[in-house]
Specification:
Helix content is 62%, strand content 7%. The radius of gyration is 26 Å and the shape is flat. β3 (295-299) and β4 (304-309) form a beta hairpin. The chain has a four-stranded mixed β-sheet. The longest helix has 30 residues, at 122-151. It is built from 14 helices and four strands. The protein is α+β, with helices and mostly antiparallel strands and 381 residues long. 26% of the residues are buried. It has helices at 2-6, 12-25, 35-44, 56-80, 97-118, 122-151, 154-175, 180-189, 216-238, 256-264, 266-272, 316-341, 346-349, 352-380, and strands at residues 247-253, 275-282, 295-299, 304-309. The chain has three domains: 56-214, Isoleucyl-tRNA Synthetase, Domain 1 (Orthogonal Bundle); 218-309, hypothetical protein PF0899 fold (2-Layer Sandwich); 316-380, Helix Hairpins (Orthogonal Bundle), CATH 1.10.287.
Length: 381
């Protein structure tokens, strides 16, 4: 960009203004992101029409997504081992709940990718493959399968490895049209069937009929468990607990069906919520002795609430002081923004983008304040 400016027909004054604008827009330059990340970003932008406002940071985000794919395949190869022999995938009937869940998610991804590509809906296509790889496969399934492969039974490990390989290999073929170079390189490192072609480029694209694994009930169960996990993670973050600090977790639910759901997914909750143990209790049968003292309590919904054991892990008095200090700083920031908004000439003198930014900033601070107040209430109780 700088060379284009200096080789153009701008006079010295205009050149200086243009160079200052580039320095302001790209203070650290434009990072190298690779052709696959750029292609993926451009496909994601297609809904905007012919002219797009390309955000370099978004392209860089997709470069980090490429790194995530590298890490996921590297993890898969480590878990499979050097002696793993790929075989045509068939449901054995011995799959765990999480195996069935990821098979259902990959089936949905295959269906949506085919639908989106046939309709030339590249924006939705990139969203589908991005969500499958990042949120379903990397964030949930890979984490849930670690304890199974490291310490599960031989049969459970065999089934988990077959499911893992099947989903990763399918995922690479799904993303291949958008990231041909990266998917080719990673696919070449995977074990292959004798029937596989020499390149992913000439491999058949996954067809919906080949993935009859959808299971809406299990997906709903895992979604409920993930709502518990996200709440626990948020609460742990409020108390600045690291993943190495394990806590006891007590989940209280309103009916037997919710209890059955969470009990069946205790291994997932223990892994993703960094818990020593997880107990699922019916609210109708809870006694004062059911949940020990020194717990932080938070209500997730009308169906469920959780208590996290903090006794001996944090100093309650010190934590309350620290949270109070954070709350005061946030309140001061909110008051400053409100003062600006209440000025008589605020609407006329402050540009619209700045006003929008101030409103978003205030809303984020209010959410953070509410979170801190909930953490303080839980500790005080």
């Amino acid at each position: 960009l700088n060379r284009q400016l200096t080789s153009g027909n701008l006079d010295a004054k205009e050149l200086a203004i243009a160079q200052a604008g580039q320095a302001r827009d790209y203070p650290k330059g434009i990072p190298q992101c690779g052709t696959d990340a750029l292609r993926f970003a451009l496909l994601a932008y297609t809904s905007q029409g012919r002219d797009i406002n390309l955000d370099v940071l978004r392209v860089q985000g997709y470069r980090f997504f490429c790194n995530k794919l590298w890490q996921a395949v590297r993890f898969t190869l480590m878990q499979l081992g050097n002696d793993y022999k790929a075989e045509p995938f068939e449901v054995s009937g011995k799959e765990s709940i999480m195996d069935k869940w990821i098979l259902s998610r990959v089936a949905h991804a295959v269906e949506r990718c085919n639908t989106d590509l046939e309709a030339y809906n590249f924006t939705q296509y990139t969203t589908t493959v991005y969500d499958f790889w990042l949120y379903d496969l990397c964030d949930i399934y890979l984490e849930s399968v670690k304890p199974v492969i490291s310490s599960g039974s031989d049969e459970a490990r065999k089934v988990a490895k077959a499911t893992l390989y099947h989903c990763v290999e399918t995922g690479l073929r799904l993303i291949s049209p958008a990231m041909p170079f990266l998917s080719e390189e990673l696919w070449q490192h995977l074990p292959r069937l004798d029937s596989h072609p020499p390149s992913i480029i000439v491999h058949a694209y996954p067809e919906t009929s080949e993935y009859p694994y959808t299971n809406e009930k299990i997906e709903a169960d895992v979604a409920f468990a993930m709502s518990v996990i996200r709440t626990v993670r948020s609460l742990r973050s409020d108390y600045e607990l690291t993943n190495k600090t394990k806590t006891d977790l007590y989940a209280s639910v309103t009916d037997e069906e919710d209890k059955r759901c969470l009990v069946s997914l205790i291994p997932l909750i223990e892994t993703l919520a960094s818990s020593n143990k997880v107990e699922v209790l019916l609210q109708s049968s809870i006694t004062p002795e059911s949940i020990p003292s020194g717990c932080a309590h938070v209500t997730i919904s009308s169906r469920c609430s959780v208590d996290i054991g903090l006794q001996g892990i944090i100093n309650v008095e010190r934590e309350l002081v620290k949270l109070s200090g954070k709350k005061e700083k946030i309140e001061a920031s909110i008051a400053k923004l409100v003062e600006q908004e209440n000025r008589p000439d605020y609407e006329e003198k402050v540009p619209l983008p700045v006003r929008v930014n101030n409103t978003e900033k205030k809303e984020a601070l209010l959410v953070e304040k509410k979170s801190i107040e909930a953490a303080m209430t839980a500790l005080s109780g």
